[in-house]
Amino acid sequence: MNEYINLSSLNDFCFCPYSIYLHNVYESTDKELFQAAPQVRGSLSHQSIDTKQASTQKEILLSLPVYSETYHIMGKIDLYDREKGALVERKYKLGQIYRGQLYQLWGQYLCLIEMNYEVTSLAFFEISTHKTIPIALPSSQDLVEFKQFIDRFLSYDPLTPLSTSINKCRHCIYCNLCDKTDEENVYT
Ligand code: SF4
């Protein structure tokens, strides 16, 4: 498989692999049909980064397109401070940091270093509380785990039997469109 995985879908794949399939199916439709409040708020909170309005300092790179041939991943970083070597991913709210969110940050890091940028620190920034949460650089064991995760993603077959929970489905934006559940979305 030669396709590149979008960094923004790593967390979704952890949440439920089938949601990636549904995302691809409904990608070209009006997002308002299925996007729930938390996703809309997340998109809005990224707008200043995506339109490169959050900083005028020249050492701060915003919304930089990145890719890694080694890991078959691509996407954009939120914020990279060239002077400090600091990579930051902003999230509106971070109750806890999920593995998929870590994978997203590790993926950004791996793309940057493959593109010859120096990265010495990683962090999440919680917009709702203005809190910075430092994250360790991935260890060699973390990189093995990440590679195995990417391989699972690349070889995913939507016909694979799913084991997901009612609670997950009810909080999934595709709930009302998904053929794997009869649950109702909590956002409707
Ligand atoms: S509704 Fe459930 S099974 Fe369907 S994509 Fe969402 S989490 Fe997965």
Description of the structure:
The protein is of the alpha/beta class and 188 residues long. The protein has helices spanning 10-15, 17-26, 37-45, 47-50, 99-114, 140-154, 166-170; strands at 5-6, 60-62, 65-68, 73-76, 79-81, 86-91, 121-126, 131-135. It has a 5-stranded mixed β-sheet with strand order 2-5-6-7-8, with helices on one face. The longest helix is centred in the middle third of the chain and has 16 residues, at 99-114. 23% of the residues are buried. The mean pLDDT is 87. The structure holds iron/sulfur cluster (SF4). Residues 16, 18-19, 22, 162, 164, 168-169, 172, 174-175, 178, 180-181 line the site of iron/sulfur cluster (SF4). Iron/sulfur cluster binds at residues 16, 18-19, 22, 162, 164, 168-169, 172, 174-175, 178, 180-181.
Strand order of the largest sheet: 2-5-6-7-8
**Helix proportion of residues, in percent?**
25-40%
Total beta strand runs: 8
Largest sheet: 5 strands, mixed
Amount of beta strand? 15-25%
pLDDT < 50 stretches: none
Shape: globular
Average predicted confidence as pLDDT: 87
Distance between the termini: 37 Å
Structural class computed from helices and strand pairing? alpha/beta
